[in-house]
Amino acid sequence: MFSDGKKAVKLKNNRSYILQDDNLFPWYTVNETMMLACQLKVANVSLQSRQKMIDNILKTLQLLHTKNTRCKNISGGQKKRLSIALELIDNPSVLFLDEPTTGLDSSSSAQCVRLLQNLSREGRTIVCTIHQPSASIYNTFDHVYIMAEGHCVYQGSANNTVAYLSSLGLHCPQYHSPADYIIEVANGDYGNFTHTLAKAATDNRWRSSQLCIMDRAIGEKTNRSSFVSDSSNSSSENTPSTTSITSSKHIERPSEWHRLRILMYRCRLQCFRDWTVTHLKVLCHVLCATLIGLMYGDSGVNATKSINNVGFLIIGVVYLWYTTMMPGVLKFPSEIAVLKKETFNGWYKLRTYYFATIAVMAPIHIMFAVLYSVIAFLITQQPLETMRLFKFVLIYAVATITADGFGIFLGTVVNQVNGTFFGAIGTCFLLVFSGFLVMFNHMPEVMRILSYFSFKRYTLEGLVLAIYDNNRSSLWCPDTELYCHYRNPMYLINELGMTPKNFNFDLSMMIIQMCAIKTLTYFTLKRRMTN
Question: Quick one: DSSP state of residue 298?
């Protein structure tokens, strides 16, 4: 379209696209949502100036009274206006809207369209798609482009619609909406006029709003003043002028490092307010760690319960894996719509968002892993040695971060229902090859080779070595027992088919797989953005 590439870049940076659905984070207030968007879009502006800009936009869009209301508690019309407000922060010259009146009642629809009309009077170009508008809404449009069967059947002023149809022998009945009538004609309710309309639509004279006076010259007798008046002129005269929303059309964009900090803050704020992500999980981890610990009792020191202790280790892996994976499967797809909108409109780059998510969520997952593992470690009377506890917690922490990546990977590839299915099945297969349900010595050679691709193989072996390796002293054998086969920790390691002194290798393989999953997830997320 442009011969100069710089012009194309300039146009891209001065346009915004507002989706049909109002994709907003529910946990932020209207003012917080606007402030975060302002920080992502505008650089080198003081907090006071940002707040003044936001208040001006909210006042113009009649949202100032909802300033401290969370987005989940505002109405549909207010959400639509807030979506528009977010894109007005950087003062784009062109706004594209996909069916802005969808889901709104007649009053909210009329209010939304009048708002768009007022914004266009400030020098912006407003382009929107709309289906079956009411007559009052239709007449507010300065230029209409109607399509049928892939052909343009009318382009011009809304006020010229009746005159245009009459020139082709199609007379709109009195008291009938011209918007409804031309849609009926385009749908073939009165015969197939598509090609006739398409040919007539090439006449550029219908674009002038002054042409509506010609309806009398071509024999159209009607008393509907709304179709003979010049809506573009009258609206500009009757509509009170609004002050410019932003103080300058030249907006300086912040760096990606600055955006990274803002996205990290936004992610932390969301995690704190979404009680299902943090508060509920903390309570669940404490209760489950206590319950599992009490169930396994003194298995950490009792030689007769060594096999049970290995079961305790794998139960912890499965528990942390599943509770970390499922939020990514179920909740992350709902963020993709928001992510698409923000990245498409140039709020930030996808990699910036992804790095911010990892930087914020990794410490939180580590905290959850520490919370569960320390409680369970102490209750089951594992050896109270600092290094063993550190290794124990470290394995669980890496497993938790990897599970988060696996859950987001599924969330970017399939929907929630299929993600739940594949997540459960994948967890089961990883567990089968862990070396506990079927020991490595008992696996067929082919299956043993496949086990090297199982993340849980390295997780379980790392946990067993953290507890039993490095010259641990003999376990306690109760006086009631005549013989404790696993009193020597090495007997257990050898029987499980695990390699002593292999902890560093297991940890390295876990980190490699974790990085691989995180990297793969980024590319699947990037691919999802283009679909």
Answer: T
CA angle at residue 134 from 77 to 217, to 5 degrees?
145
Q: At what angle do helices 76-88 and 47-60 cross, to 10 degrees?
A: 130
Q: CA-CA distance, 396 to 455, in Å (whole number)? A: 12
Q: How far apart are CA 513 and CA 227, in angstroms?
A: 67
Q: Are 84 and 18 in contact (CB under 8 A)?
A: yes
- Residue 57 to residue 63: CA distance in whole angstroms: 8
CB distance 287 to 379 below 8 Å:
no
Q: Can you tell me which residue has the tokens 């922490």?
A: 397
pTM, to two decimals: 0.80
Q: Cα-Cα-Cα-Cα dihedral of 486, 490, 494, 495, to 10°? A: 10
CA angle 6/8/11 to nearest 5° reads 110
Q: What is the pLDDT of residues 303-332, one digit of tens each?
A: 888 899 999 999 999 999 999 999 889 888
Cα separation, 134 vs 40, in Å, equals 37
- Residue with tokens 């977010």, as numbered in its chain: 86
Name which of 241, 109, 99, 215 is nearest 157 in CA terms. Answer: 215
Complete DSSP assignment for 124-137: -EEEEE-SS--HHH
